[in-house]
């Protein structure tokens, strides 16, 4: 029984280690990069499109709409970051149908790295949107008393992001492992289905939470100016 | 009772209690959240997309407390630092 794919080691030479997490992460990156390169090679703008182009357009417009709903003004700017997070976590969860595969997100190092990306990206987007002073001022909202709590929440929500994804993916793999030793054949398949659902929900949650954090750091969307009252 | 037995008993009992209580409380919380969201959905079906998104984010927040409990109990059972320490000492003797 192993707690994470870090413990499966394919190749080791002194300090260098090649464990399952690294191998499957690079495999997923290859699939995502090569797949999207192949599909976007011949895009068409008229009505005669390939199936894969339609599929990709559904995904991209879906992500754009979700980001817009959260309250970010121009979603095209954030889709590179948030969309990549979603696609990677979703792909890591989806590939569990392949036998012998271990989701790299079931290792705390992967999820911590993803959460640190969010931790770095939120101030960057915030500073880009409203300057250093404007961003630092959001820490003292609503009053100056809240400053320590805002700083604590910055760290704790990063940890929560990492542990939530890790716990969900690890529990899925572990429950299937335990059930295989107790009741083989039918029941693990049902749990695998449940694990697929949990993985997709977690991918959604991870990217939506990142979007919410970025939306909180950038300026809130101003309502459309009403017609000036004539008084 | 030597320290080895004590650590084993404490780890196993705590792991069970952690998962038990840690499942019970978030389940109650999630039940309340879903019930309220269903009432809101029945009253305002137009706002379903907003309610559903907020519900999912909220449920993930509540569920993460259960996940913390699960992670702690898994560490207690499979990667217990105190147990590993005692084993290392016993092997060194």
Write a brief caption for the model.
With about 230 residues, chain A is mainly alpha-helical. Chain A contains six helices and two strands.
In what range is the share of β-strand residues of chain B? under 5%
Q: How many distinct beta strands of chain B?
A: 0
Total helix count of chain B? 3
Distance between the termini of chain B: 19 Å
Shape of chain B: rod-shaped
Determine the oligomeric state from the structure: heterodimer
| Main β-sheet description of chain A | 2 strands, antiparallel
Helix content of chain A: 55-70%
Uncertain stretches of 5 or more adjacent residues of chain B = none
| Pair of chains with the largest interface and how many residues each contributes | A-B, 20 and 15 residues
Fold and architecture overview:
The termini of chain A are far apart. In chain A, strands 1-2 form a two-stranded antiparallel ribbon. By secondary structure, chain A is mainly α. Helix content of chain A is 68%, strand content 4%. Chain A has helices spanning 20-39, 51-70, 75-94, 108-137, 147-182, 186-217, and strands spanning 9-13, 16-19. Chain A has six helices and two strands; from the N terminus they run ββαααααα. The radius of gyration of chain A is 21 Å and the shape is globular. Chain B contains three helices and no strands. Chain B has helices at 3-43, 48-78, 81-92. Chains A and B meet through α5 and α6 of A and α2 of B.
Topology:
The complex is a heterodimer of chains A (231) and B (93).
Chain A: E1 9-13, E2 16-19, H1 20-39, H2 51-70, H3 75-94, H4 108-137, H5 147-182, H6 186-217
Antiparallel strand pairs in A: 1-2
Chain B: H1 3-43, H2 48-78, H3 81-92
Helix pairs in contact in B: 1-2, 1-3
Salient structural properties:
heterodimer, A: 231 residues, mainly alpha, two-stranded antiparallel ribbon, 6 helices, 2 strands, 4% strand, B: 93 residues, 3 helices, 90% helix, 0% strand, rod-shaped
């Amino acid at each position: 029984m192993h707690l994470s794919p870090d413990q499966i080691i394919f190749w080791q030479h002194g300090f260098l280690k090649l464990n399952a997490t690294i191998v499957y992460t690079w495999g997923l990156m290859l699939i995502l990069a090569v797949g999207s390169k192949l599909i976007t090679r011949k895009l068409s703008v008229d009505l005669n499109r390939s199936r894969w182009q339609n599929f990709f357009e559904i995904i991209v417009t879906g992500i754009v709409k979700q980001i817009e709903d959260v309250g970010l003004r121009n979603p095209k700017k954030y889709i590179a970051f948030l969309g990549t997070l979603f696609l990677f976590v979703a792909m890591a969860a989806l590939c569990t149908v392949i036998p012998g595969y271990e989701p790299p997100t079931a290792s705390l190092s992967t999820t911590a790295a993803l959460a640190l990306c969010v931790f770095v990206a939120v101030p960057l987007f915030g500073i880009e949107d409203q300057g250093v002073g404007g961003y630092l001022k959001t820490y003292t909202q609503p009053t100056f008393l809240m400053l320590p709590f805002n700083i604590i929440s910055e760290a704790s929500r990063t940890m929560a992001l990492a542990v939530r994804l890790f716990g969900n993916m690890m529990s899925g793999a572990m429950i299937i492992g335990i059930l295989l030793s107790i009741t083989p054949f039918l029941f693990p398949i049902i749990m695998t289905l449940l694990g697929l659902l949990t993985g997709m929900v977690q991918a959604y949650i991870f990217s939506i939470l990142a979007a919410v954090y970025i939306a909180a750091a950038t300026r809130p969307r101003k309502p459309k100016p009403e017609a000036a009252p004539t008084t | 009772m030597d320290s080895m037995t004590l650590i084993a008993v404490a780890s196993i009992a705590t792991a069970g209690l952690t998962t038990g209580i840690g499942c019970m409380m978030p389940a109650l919380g999630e039940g309340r959240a879903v019930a309220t969201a269903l009432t809101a959905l029945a009253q305002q079906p137009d706002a379903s997309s907003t309610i559903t998104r907020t519900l999912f984010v909220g449920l993930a927040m509540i569920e993460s407390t259960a996940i913390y409990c699960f992670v702690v109990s898994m560490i207690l059972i499979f990667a217990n630092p105190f147990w590993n320490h005692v084993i290392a000492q016993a092997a060194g003797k």
